[in-house]
Structures are given as structure tokens and as C-alpha cells.
Specification:
Layout: E1 28-33, H1 37-41, E2 45-53, E3 56-61, E4 69-73, E5 83-85, E6 102-106, E7 109-112, E8 115-123, H2 134-147, H3 159-169, H4 173-183, H5 193-209, H6 216-230, H7 233-236, H8 239-249, H9 255-264, H10 270-279, H11 284-304
Parallel strand pairs: 1-8, 4-5
Antiparallel strand pairs: 1-5, 2-3, 2-6, 3-4, 6-7, 7-8
Helix pairs in contact: 2-10, 2-11, 3-4, 3-11, 4-6, 5-6, 5-8, 5-11, 6-8, 9-10, 10-11
Length: about 300
């Protein structure tokens, strides 16, 4: 979770009157994730800055398709799927951006404060993983579990994540949805712990299920569970977290989570990738990693067990 709770982010918020575009500023080049391509290629629309940190600024659009929150991130910042990477400028790139500022997104640009970014390149958040054998995935899951500290989870001791993992491993959609709904929005911060666990789970179910023999059941489960948790996410959690849940449901991870998925698939070293993810925030990375581990176990269980999804 990002270490600040913004109660103002929950639910739709009014946007300041449109006084027209600010004076022209020379844009800097940026690279955007495909998750936000639709928002950036539409005509220019007003947005609001909902949070600013040294390495990132978040702009929320009112209306339109998810993800409604677009992240502007520095070259060394955490790279969510809904982000535009802004190059280093010799100072903090978001120095002139303030929470509550009016911003603009569209026509290939994102603007806030004294910053104007023109998207020059696109990157695909979905990692290349497969084909993936059951033995390789089982080995990766063992390594991931060994690398995680149970005390680092923001919901340590809460029954919700375990119930969600058990429901998914059993192929019980109704039980999985019920457990997920208990933890959506649970925890402080811009990305509550419950949402991070769910996001990690959805990413593993879909992306590992797509490349594993017998993984179609996992993908089916990801489809329906993702639809359930995103239906009213913008009323149950923060704006940013709702957007990230939509990205996870579509199989679009952050750069750090994508590296862990590649590690699970044997495409790169897993341990360093886990360390980068976990160290990216106090709880958020660890929460997501625990969700990814639960997804790994569900993919393995559903790949070898008779399907119970049809009866869910």
C-alpha cells in the first residue's frame, strides 16, 4: 500500500470548473503503458491530481473506461500498468505538481502543474511467460514462498486472504467471490492491502494459467472473479486501487510484479525480482506477492483436479 490514506479519493469527486488550457509548455517525451492508451488517444479531457510523491503523481479522470487514474512516474519509480514514465530532468520531475491541481489527459499528452508529457513510445505490461510446465511452476511457487515473510503482509492474521486462496484452489467461484468481497478496500493507503492481495491473485490466475497445461480453469476463474471485484470497486476502495484492480483483472501487472511472474516461469532470477517487489513499499509489494503465491497454488490445483467451476 502507498503510505498515505486519502479519504477524498473514495468515490467520484467534483472537478474544478474548466477555465481552458494553461499556457503552452514545451513537452518532455514519455513512455506509456498500453493500459492507458485509450485514455491518452482520446480528445483532451480535464483531470485532477489526487496524490503527489517524489517519484510519482496520480491524475484521475472523471468518467470514461478504466483505468481512470493515470500515474506519472519517474525513471526510477515503481511502474504500474497505468503509468507514463517521465524522464529525469535534473530535479524532481513532479516538483511543481500539487495535490488538487487541475490536469489534462488526451491527444497523446498528460499535463499537471508545470509538467507536460507527450507520449512517444508505448510498452506492454503483459510479460512473456510460456509455455510453462507444472514442475517449473511448482518449483517457482516453493521459491516464492521461501522468499516471503508472513509478518510483512498487511492483513497478517486476517482470515480473508486464506479463505480467498482456499476458494480459488478448490475452484469454488462463489466462495472465492465472497472472500474477495470481504477484503476489497481493506487496509489504509492509496492501495489497501486487500486490493493488493486480490490483484496478485488475479495476475497469477490469468497470466500463469494462460501458459500452463490445464490452465483454462484458472483463466475462467480469473474472468469471473475479476468481474466480481471490479464491478463496483470505485465505490469500495480508492480511485487508484480501483484502477489497478481493473488492470490486474485484465492481466496487466506493474513492472515489478511482471518480473516476479517471469521468475516464477523460469524466465529470469526469481529472488532478486521478489526483493524488488517487496521493497517497493511497506506492505503493497509483499501483499501482492502473497496474492501471486495463492494464484500459483490455485493454478496447480485446478490443473490436476476435476473441474468444480461449473457448479459454482
Amino acid at each position: 500500500m502507498i503510505e498515505r490514506s486519502e479519504s477524498s479519493l473514495r468515490g467520484p469527486q467534483p472537478v474544478a470548473p474548466d477555465h481552458g488550457p494553461e499556457p503552452f509548455r514545451a513537452p518532455v517525451p514519455g513512455a506509456a503503458g498500453l493500459a492507458v492508451r485509450e485514455a491518452l488517444e482520446r480528445p483532451r479531457r480535464q483531470a485532477r491530481v489526487i496524490a503527489v510523491f517524489p517519484a510519482a503523481a496520480y491524475l484521475r479522470l472523471n468518467g470514461g473506461a478504466e483505468p481512470r487514474v493515470v500515474a506519472l512516474v519517474g525513471p526510477d519509480g515503481v511502474r504500474p500498468a497505468n503509468s507514463i514514465v517521465v524522464p529525469g530532468t535534473g530535479r524532481q520531475p513532479f516538483h511543481g505538481v500539487r495535490e488538487g491541481d487541475t490536469g489534462w489527459i488526451g491527444d497523446g499528452h498528460a499535463e499537471a502543474g508545470g509538467l507536460r508529457v507527450r507520449v512517444r513510445r508505448w510498452w506492454d505490461p503483459r510479460p512473456v511467460l510460456g509455455p510453462l510446465s507444472e514442475a517449473r511452476l511448482r518449483h517457482g511457487a516453493m521459491l516464492l514462498e521461501a522468499a516471503l515473510d508472513p509478518r510483512a503482509c498487511g492483513l497478517s492474521g486476517h482470515p480473508g486472504p486464506a479463505a480467498l486462496a482456499d476458494g480459488c484452489a478448490a475452484g469454488d467461484l462463489a466462495r472465492a467471490v465472497q472472500a474477495a468481497e470481504r477484503i476489497v478496500g481493506l487496509g489504509p493507503g492509496l492501495t489497501p492491502s486487500g486490493d493488493d492481495v486480490i490483484s496478485g491473485l488475479l495476475l497469477s490466475l490469468r497470466l500463469l494459467g494462460e501458459v500452463t497445461a490445464g490452465g483454462s480453469r484458472s483463466v475462467w476463474l480469473a474472468d469471473w472473479l475479476g468481474a466480481a471485484v471490479t464491478t463496483d470497486a470505485d465505490t469500495r476502495t480508492t480511485s487508484l486501487s480501483a484502477s489497478l484492480l481493473h488492470c490486474a483483472a485484465a492481466g496487466q501487472p506493474s513492472g515489478e510484479a511482471a518480473a516476479v511472474l517471469r521468475g516464477l516461469a523460469g524466465r529470469e532470477a526469481l529472488a532478486p525480482a521478489v526483493r524488488r517487489l517487496v521493497s517497493s513499499s511497506r506492505y503493497s509489494g509483499a501483499d501482492m506477492a502473497w496474492g501471486m503465491l495463492a494464484g500459483c497454488r490455485a493454478v496447480l490445483a485446478l490443473g490436476r483436479a476435476p473441474s468444480r467451476l461449473a457448479s459454482a
